[in-house]
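Hi P.,

Sorry for the delay on this. The queue was packed all week, but I finally got your sequence through. Input first:
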Amino acid sequence: DASYYFEIAAHLLSGPGVSFDTINLTNGFQVLWLLLLLPVAGVIKDPDIFVAVVWWIQVLLAGVAAGLTFVLANVLGPRPRTWIPSAIIISALPFLPLWNGGMVNGLETPAFTVALLGSLILLQNFRVAPSSKSAWLVATGLTLTLLGRLDGLLFVALTGIALWLWRTGTVQQRIHSIALPVVVSVAYFAANLILFGALSPVSGATKTVWGERELQAGIDAGMPEWRLRLKSMAWPEQFLDPLISRLPAGLSDGFVIDAAVLLAVILSYAMIAWLYWRRDLPVLVVFQMFLLGKILIYGYLQFGYAGYIWYWALDLFGIVLFVAVAVQGLLARRQTAATAAAFAVLAGYLAFGLIGNVVLERGRSEYAVDPATGEIAEYVGGKYASATLNESPVTSGLLMTSSDAGILGFYLQDPLVNLDGLVNGRERLDFTRRYGSD
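Then the structure:
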């Protein structure tokens, strides 16, 4: 799916406009990430080099996100000599599960994460030194976060409420801090509704249809709706399979496991928010409430979204950030013991990360490396198919269609319509709503 962005960026600069297949107008993308791809598409024309450059841009953005996590912990935490354990803990991020799948996958998550973490730092700056300049910087950060991904709308709303409750700065400065993202979001949603018939991008609207059909299929099969939504909200269960699969059959797939996982996540997140509040870190309370709200949005309201792991990459940052801040607090009191604890936590993170990534990779066999080429089989397969079609006189000038066609479409010379509907236009979305599937 990440390759949909690549083709749209190239078409936006070469003439066909905001379209994947040169036929259908599309908003099947998150705006910030597409904007970052435009300079690359303008300079680099070779597809292989383009993909490689984008990969390293994402690696860089992921590193920047980890760096901003450290800056945030350092800005908010107690001062001297507390940065060392925080830096050690946060440097463990790339070793943790979900990092590859959630952060370096060609999609928008790294850009969104950088925008949101940067907004938290700017929000803290506005709290301690309110001014017109700091208010507009917050507004810029929030707008970029909203354009990074639409769950940023929840973060904007929580920030606006927090600023009003905190009474930070003047009323005018508070209004300035949220006016720009509000105006941009209203214009964005209005344009989506007028052009495509849905408030969210086509990609999100299509996933919503799929989720609704999946939910209805479960209900038709005799499963209560509350039970299906509970299982959806217990999203960490998908990463606990090596443990859960060893439980008795009646327990491993039952209500008790789902309820226990969901309760553990909610209580943990709420406890972290409470500890932040007790330590007078309200900016991190906003962040933690955002993470808590995402469980409701992606687990309950947007049924079917919980299976997309990149929506949960920020939760990993939340855990690491909490441990870093907690260790800082300990270090301010008992330096020797806390330093030892920091290294113990680091060792635990590394062990957890190595084990978790092995488990994650075993579950991603469809992305296994091709032994002959050393490339991911799906990727090299799409390239081979497009090269074959490009050289064939039979298919020259034909309009072709394919499902899940990002890689194929990016390398194919002729237009290709994507049948799964994620980057097609209003008519394709209407078709999906009517029939529910391709």
